[in-house]
Design a protein that fits this description.
Jelly Rolls, Immunoglobulin-like, mainly beta, elongated, single chain
């Protein structure tokens, strides 16, 4: 890139030959790095990624195609990055056209990240409802940011987390669409070829690299550590999703949270729940989380939603509640649920531990509303221990039960579910 250019435009195409049944055809992603670096993890040169969502993009000092970052068109060597997602047996023929336009550089872009508070919804220590997996036109979604905000408010959410694929571009403009009754958190769905892992609660503009596989454990650990150093949390997304490259192949224990529920309840969610429950039974508890993964206007935002106990409607408080497992999942804002355990005048709620003396009875109590036609189930490390048609109580002892959790089902479909309440020894 020589001196004097104000805008860069890239257009690409590739052939899509017919393939026989059972064989995957051609699919190729695209992005770009500027002259400041393009090696693994080098955020200095990253200027955008659109995957396979569009066939062209443009950059200038003052503007960029969604998914890309405005900024100076610096002289030097730029790298267009192609990511062959799947390749047909015939191979892949591709073409990349780069157009450079002269002119004044234009006014520098001024980022407008979302405010850090939503005062109209902050109720102090309370249960807050959020959707932690969402997409807009900044990756492969079809909603604009403004349309996503409208959908989230209509779903009666208190907060959302923006999780575009492999780019932080949306985080630099949420302030243009924020309202005082919806907190917007930043994230990135780190979309590797070995599965997806949303990094949630990131500072605006933070970029996490995705160019590694599960066979490179040192690489994924490096970027998990980067998320934690930035104050965010790592989510294992849709562990059994059926799309190519979407199934989570990394060690689940790298994650802070497991997305057991992604969009409509299907066999994929049932498999994720079974895996999560199996880890829990063997002493490896990773708190659950849910998100709609809404891409299109037909995808309901807030179905499901994560309801988290937090000291305030702030990023740090919400992430603390999520990491501690003080949360439960619901199919909509209509669903109300409370779950706790008590013994000897002591009480513990979801994600907490109740200290219990030897031989002391423990009462688990479930209160539900807005769930007609459902069955409430209390489960422990053994079986479904108790069922009821609505709010209910169940008595047990610590020698029988290490923890208990709740599922509310309509037939085979989950309507709500909780993290466990644990039982410990009274010292």
């Amino acid at each position: 890139m020589p001196e004097g250019f104000a805008e860069l435009e890239v257009i690409y195409s590739y052939d899509k030959p017919a393939v026989p049944p059972g064989t995957r055809g051609n699919a190729c992603d695209i992005g770009i790095f500027g002259p400041h670096g393009h090696e693994l993890g080098d955020a200095r040169g990253f200027r955008g990624w659109s995957g396979g969502a569009r066939d062209r993009f443009a950059l200038s000092a003052s503007a960029a195609t969604p998914g890309y970052l405005p900024g100076p068109i610096t002289p030097g060597t730029w790298h267009v990055v192609l990511g062959p997602y799947t390749v047909a047996p015939q191979g892949m023929r591709y073409r990349v056209d780069v157009t450079l336009r002269f002119g004044p550089p234009g006014a520098p872009h001024e980022p407008r990240p979302a405010p850090e508070t939503a005062p109209a919804r902050d109720r102090g220590r309370a249960w807050y409802r959020g959707d932690n997996h969402l997409h807009t036109v900044h990756s492969d979604g079809r909603r604009t940011p403004a349309e996503l905000v409208d959908a989230a408010r209509a779903a009666r959410l208190d907060f959302i987390t923006s999780t575009e694929h492999n780019t932080p571009s949306a985080s630099l403009q949420w302030g243009e669409h924020a309202t005082d009754d919806l907190l917007i958190l930043n994230g990135e769905e780190v979309t590797t070829r070995s599965g997806h892992w949303p990094a949630i609660g990131l500072p605006a503009g933070t970029w996490i690299d995705w160019r590694y596989r599960s066979t490179e454990p040192g690489s994924v650990r490096r970027f998990v550590d980067q998320v934690h150093e930035a104050g965010g949390l790592v989510v294992a997304a849709h562990p059994f999703a059926g799309c190519f490259g979407c199934t989570f192949e990394f060690d689940l224990r790298l994650a802070d949270l497991v997305e057991v529920w992604n969009g409509p309840w299907t066999a994929e969610e049932e498999a994720a729940l079974h895996q999560w429950d199996g880890l829990l039974r063997t002493g490896h508890w990773i708190p659950l989380i849910g998100g709609s993964d809404a891409h299109n206007p037909s995808d309901p935002v807030g179905r499901p939603q994560t309801v988290v106990l937090a000291d305030a409607l702030r990023r740090d408080a919400l992430l603390d509640g999520l990491q501690r497992g003080r949360s439960w999942l619901a199919e909509s804002a209509e669903v109300q649920l409370a779950f706790s355990a008590s013994a000897g005048g002591r009480r513990a709620g979801i994600g907490e531990t109740l200290a219990v003396a030897t031989g002391e009875p423990v009462d688990f109590e479930v209160s539900v509303d807005g769930v007609p036609g459902t069955e409430v189930r209390i489960l422990d490390q053994l079986v479904v221990e108790h069922t009821a048609a609505g709010s209910t109580r169940w008595r047990t002892y610590r020698r029988y039960t290490r923890w208990a959790r709740v599922e509310v089902r309509r037939g085979d479909t989950v309507v709500a579910m909780t993290n466990p309440v644990f039982l410990g020894e009274l010292g």
